[in-house]
Fold each of these.
Amino acid sequence: MRNSDDLLRQAQAVLRANDAGVYTCPGPRQYPHQWNWDSAVIALGLSHFDLPRALVEIRSLLRGQWRDGLMPHIVYHGRPSDYFPDPDFWQITGSPNAPEVATSGITQPPLLASIVRQIHARTPIPAFVRDVYPALLRWHRWLHTARDADGSGLVCIIHPWESGTDDSPRWLWAMQRITPTHLPAYHRGDTRHVAHPERPYDADYDRFVYLIDLFRRHSYEPAALLTHSPFLVQDVLFNAVLYRADEDLLALGRELGEPTDEIVGWLHRMRAGFSARFWDETHGLYFDYDMRAGAPIAVNTALTFMPLYAGLASQEQARRLITDHWLNPAEYAPDSVVRYRVTTTSKTESCWEARRYWRGPVWIMLNWLLVEGLRRYGFKALAEELRRDSIELVRRSGFWEYYDPRDGSGCGSPDFSWSAALTLELLIRS
Ligand code: DGY
């Protein structure tokens, strides 16, 4: 067994090995470009042993920002690869807002402001914060305008990739309603590197591609995408991450002496609408909301715990989440088959699959967000248990993209950067 110092060194070595110069690949073969929320947590991990390189990571990501404020989910940085979609597939030059560099045309959960604040709180970097604050503010403003589809203050996503949880069963109904006609020709690159049963189904990919094709035909014009995207969802995870990031942006803005009334307004409206939209009193769970169907998405996944991370649950809602679900062996607590937390989907869901991407496996990223959430609500023992179990999982199996919750074996991409970055975080910030 490796001790903690060994594990720290191993984690650093993974981040060094995946270093592509000015950005870090999430995984060596499967993900050769720069991904938005991956890069944010990679910067957090790097900040523990190479702060200047962490700041380069963030600046490189920001180079992909669109003229209207959108922060894309992938920045390509010109590296040739067999990744699909390749940069040309997005056809972003059809948009007057596209940046100089090649990027995707959709976004991802906005973790970056929270990460900048955390790094700054540990080692003050005032000049850097002053430099990047305007870009962060523009991204958040874009989210609160271009993606506030119903004027409620909550934001929506238009593609499952924007959720960061691509094939989550939360999207099953919405995806089944889409008939992917006139698909452009494409070849999946992912299954060259990872076994098919650990990746999304082909039917999901057809719909992922169908949506991209629709968006590029509308030149990524934000209002047109809200009107025409058949996938339009208010996502609990995305909104929780944004709320917490707005709080962090507010703190940074106040420190800089910037006007912050706009951010206070966003926070006020999100808090006012969050539980009314997402909390289901009967089940005691948070459900995403399908705006096209005009109905909650009643699927029990671990994303239901995410309001804890943002401080958006009441004490009573938090108590019910933990007592009825977290500690329930039929759903999320370990049992004779499932040994590791946190399965991305409740075991009670018929679509639960132990090794398939976001259908069941354990992800270190979710565990880290949930350690933070459990601490915030005073569930200190549960938070510590989850922190230790997560480190133990990595120590046992290595830095995998995700893990089979039954035996802890690795799935997806090996040598995965965010698993390494968050192992550093979980070890050092115990
Ligand atoms: C992938 O390629 O699986 C990514 O999650 C899409 O961004």
Amino acid sequence: MTTAPLTGLFISFEGIDGAGKSTHIGALAAAFKAQGREVTLTREPGGTPLAETLRTLVLNDPMDPLTEALLMFAARRDHLNCVILPALARGEVVLCDRFTDATFAYQGGGRGFDEAVLTQLETMVQATVESNGTQLIQPKLTVWFDLAPEEAAKRLAGARVPDKFESQPLEFFRRVADGYARRLVGEPGRFARIDGGQTQQAVWQDVHAVFVAKGWLA
Ligand code: TYD
């Protein structure tokens, strides 16, 4: 992939199901808009017609771990090409509900799929040729809502009909959480870990403070 200079701001949001990302992503979008920034609010898997079709399949249909990982990355490729990179080139703030860390956490940690293969796929899908060489497109910041799997399960119980991932046992989510923790250790500078066990208001204060400290919000 060759791209125009990416002047925008790419931010992803991660956490196990039930960790409570959604409200805060919406509030951040409003805060950026209030400062006059254009915001693209999007999600993975999904964000384009093709990727949303793949989302429906991957969240509902049984399939082997390699197929699942390939579909996640196929959806991501389309999403990057059609939505994320164009928005960044226009200088927008891209707030993305999950990105590649979710594949390492869910398919890698949760499913136990080979992380070396995921790394190869990540390189294939996210490499861009820039003036200073080949770069891997990654969020500038990843906000990780870290919540104990037991607590997340309590919050999700009875909330809605669970999809293929949400209906996994507690042990699966322990492995997913460990997968996120490994990604943070691998790239600590990219992550902001938020204690998702606090009240919603306290979580928002922590999230907001991260963006203020970065100089992105007043
Ligand atoms: P989620 O983002 O939680 O959306 P909703 O708020 O509608 O439930 O759901 C997406 C699910 O897909 C979630 O269980 C995590 C899973 N997922 C993966 O397994 N791998 C991935 O690469 C991505 C992006 C998501």
